[in-house]
Amino acid sequence: MKISTIFCATLLATFVATSCSTNTNTAKLKAKPEVSISNQEWFLVGDNNTVKGLYDKNISMVIDESASKVSGFSGCNNFNATIAKTNGTITFGNFSETKMACPNLKAEQDFLSVLKNVNRYEIAGKELYLYKGNILLMKLKTT
C-alpha cells in the first residue's frame, strides 16, 4: 500500500508540474514580414549578394506606386520611368535619363535594358526579385 501511495503521489506531482508549466498561449514564429514595393530605396544586388555600384555610388531605384513612377541611379546617370503594376505584374516604360559622360556606360545601359524587360516581380522579406516570365533578371534589396 505504501508503494501505491508513493506512485500515486509521484504521478499526481508530475501531472501538476507538467500542467503548470505548459503554456497554451505559446508564441509561434512568424515569417519575415514583406516590405512594400513602394517608397523603398531598392539597391541592385550582385552575384555575391552585395550591393552593386559604379563610381562609388550604388545602383538603386525608388518606386512610387501612387504616382506610377520610378526614379533612381543607374550607375552614372539618374533615370525616371513610369510603372504599371497589378497583382504581381510590373512593367517599366517611358524612360528618361540624364546624359552625363562616364567611362563605362555599358553597365548602365545593361541595367536599364534589363529593367525594360521586366514583367513580373516577387518580394521576399526585404528582397525584390524582378523577372521576365519565370527568368530572374535582377535582385534588389532594401534596408
From TrEMBL:
PROSITE patterns in UniProt: PROKAR_LIPOPROTEIN
Sections of the chain in a coiled coil: none
Family matches, as Pfam families: META
Signal peptide boundaries: 1-19
Domain DUF306: 37-134
Keywords in alphabetical order: Signal, Stress response
Record PANTHER family: DUF306 DOMAIN-CONTAINING PROTEIN, HEAT SHOCK PROTEIN HSLJ
Entry protein name: Heat shock protein HslJ
Species per Swiss-Prot/TrEMBL record: Chishuiella changwenlii
Organism lineage: Bacteria, Pseudomonadati, Bacteroidota, Flavobacteriia, Flavobacteriales
